[in-house]
Design a protein that fits this description.
Strands 8, 20, 21, 22, 23, 24, 25 and 26 form an 8-stranded antiparallel sheet that branches. The chain has a 7-stranded mixed sheet with strand order 1-2-3-4-5-7-6. A 6-stranded antiparallel sheet has the order 9-10-11-18-13-16, with no helix packed on it. The longest helix has 17 residues. It has 3 domains: 162 residues, Aminopeptidase (3-Layer(aba) Sandwich), CATH 3.40.630.30; 209 residues, Jelly Rolls (Sandwich), CATH 2.60.120; 79 residues, Jelly Rolls (Sandwich). The protein has 10 helices and 26 strands. The chain starts with a strand and ends with a strand. With 485 residues, it is an alpha+beta fold.
Length: 485
């Protein structure tokens, strides 16, 4: 049996079907449908007049009716969906109570998807009252993806939204990321700026790190419905992560608030980490300075020229003597610091920064400023490993990036690429090859694509899948876009 368009002669029979379904729902204790309010005769007539009312018969009996259309409901325009730039929708799906439970609903949805494919749609969207468990189960069984809740004006109960791709090439849309946080005793140097300045929903103060895009076990970032980035990659594969779908995720993106200076530390390269840290990645990173104390900030960026390994070893044994060997530099907002593996470094007090790095949690501490916790305990140091991986030959300096409208490539290194896009009206994203990560660092920017948009304010990050559609940027602000190298 297949759906076919209803004709004028079917109208009264269709109205009777909707009346019966509404009554049956009320008998089951559901007031999702109340005939005359929703659905109503005017709605059914409008569906018929606009050619979007489809029905199904079995042995001449009307068993189902549904409205199928390619235009979007107004409330759908502000909803964040998962896929598609040419969406179709269906609504008011009614199955005759006498045949419910016999699989007719699934058959109708199969036909609806075929109708929308023929109409050129690349995805399908729908919603259901959260109390309508029969409809919710049906959509989940048919492979529709939960897109969260929608609240309609004047109605108390929210609606659950769903979508589904209709074609292999259907693009995935940008994903708003919910960060994980590292705070408390793990970041005793942290503060409260991630909350007060960057709008993060912190659970404890101090918090030093907001992991905006992360696959670190136990610290994974999530989509708005709580699905972790590793779960999303397993679900969508190459469409979301390109060649990294079946490889370790390569990057980690953070915002860092340093109320106090971080420990003096160094990170290993890939070969050392693979051998000594159970196959983990090494850690090369880069910082973009977002905020400093008035007049600028200070950080540790390598060792003083001429420092020998013997001097460093002896200083490490005596604690504070390490300070005399540290090369300290001044930084201003907008400065870029590239931190390759082996570079001794420490973020200074009062600095907030954006950090893009390899996806690794390996840090070897040389020195922690003789800092103690409330019980008088010092943090663990890792002197042997730190001395083994430290590169005393590095002579790096911060790079000043002048503010200018448009897109600018700031870094192109082995592991990552970093662009900054600044706009007072409109801009364009760089091409996305495997995946990308966009963080608004000033103002507010709206991503726009065909039949969709996402508004990001300062401090918010979205994940850009490999199959993301062409996107333009509107608004006044600046964004950092990180890509794998």
């Amino acid at each position: 049996m297949e759906l076919f368009k209803a004709a004028a002669g079917d109208l009264q029979e269709v109205i009777s079907l909707y009346q019966r379904v509404s009554a049956a729902m009320e008998e089951d204790g559901l007031d999702c449908w109340k005939w005359g309010l929703y659905p109503s005769e005017d709605m059914i007539r409008e569906d018929l007049d606009k050619g979007r009312l489809w029905i199904q018969r079995a042995d001449k009996q009307l068993v189902a009716a549904v409205a199928v259309m390619t235009e979007q409901k107004p409330e759908y325009e502000k909803k964040e969906w998962t896929c598609g730039i040419r969406p179709g929708i269906f609504t008011r799906l009614a199955v005759n109570p006498s045949v419910q439970g016999a699989g007719w609903g699934g058959g109708v949805l199969d036909d609806v998807q075929q109708i929308l494919r023929r109409a050129g749609c690349d995805s399908i969207r729908c919603d259901a009252d959260i109390r309508n468990t029969r409809a919710l189960r049906l959509y989940e069984k048919m492979g529709f993806r939960d897109c969260g809740e929608l609240v309609r004006d004047g109605l108390e109960q929210p609606f659950r939204c769903f979508d589904k791709p209709l074609k292999r090439e259907t693009p995935l849309l940008p994903i708003r990321m919910t960060p994980a946080f590292r705070g408390g005793a793990l970041t005793p140097w942290g503060g409260d700026k991630l909350k007060t300045v960057w709008g993060k929903d912190l659970q404890e103060i101090p918090t030093g790190e907001s992991l905006e895009v992360s696959c670190i076990p136990g610290l994974e970032s999530r989509d708005p419905l709580g699905r972790t980035l590793p779960e999303l990659i397993r679900e969508f594969g190459e469409k979301i992560a390109g060649k990294y779908a079946d490889k370790p995720f390569p990057l980690l993106l953070k915002l860092i608030d340093a109320r106090e200076p971080l420990s003096v530390q160094v990170h290993p390269g890939d070969a050392y980490a693979a051998e000594k840290e159970h196959g983990k990645l090494g850690k090369t990173e880069a910082w973009m300075i977002l905020d400093t104390p008035p007049g600028g900030g200070e950080l540790v960026y390598g060792l003083k020229p001429g420092t020998t390994l013997k001097q460093l070893k002896e200083a490490c044994r005596n604690g504070r003597e390490v300070e005399s060997l540290l090369r300290k530099v001044r930084v201003q907002p907008g400065d870029i610091c590239y931190i390759p593996s082996g570079c001794v470094h420490a973020i200074g007090a009062g600095i907030t920064l954006y950090e893009i790095q390899q996806s690794s949690d390996i840090t070897y501490r040389f020195y922690d400023w003789d800092r103690t916790d409330r019980d008088g305990n010092r943090r663990e140091l890792h002197l042997e490993k730190a001395l083994e991986v430290a590169d005393l030959s590095l002579k790096l300096m911060p790079v000043r990036v002048e503010k200018a409208y448009g897109g600018k490539r700031i870094l192109k290194e082995k592991y990552f690429i970093l662009d900054v896009i600044r706009t007072d009206d409109s801009g364009v994203l760089p091409p996305i090859h495997d995946f990308g990560m966009m963080t608004v660092i000033e103002g507010q920017i709206t991503l726009r694509w065909n039949n969709g948009r996402m508004k990001l304010k300062k401090g918010e990050t979205c994940f850009l899948p490999r199959s993301v559609p062409e996107i333009t940027l509107r608004g006044s602000g600046a964004a950092a876009v990180a890509l794998p190298g």
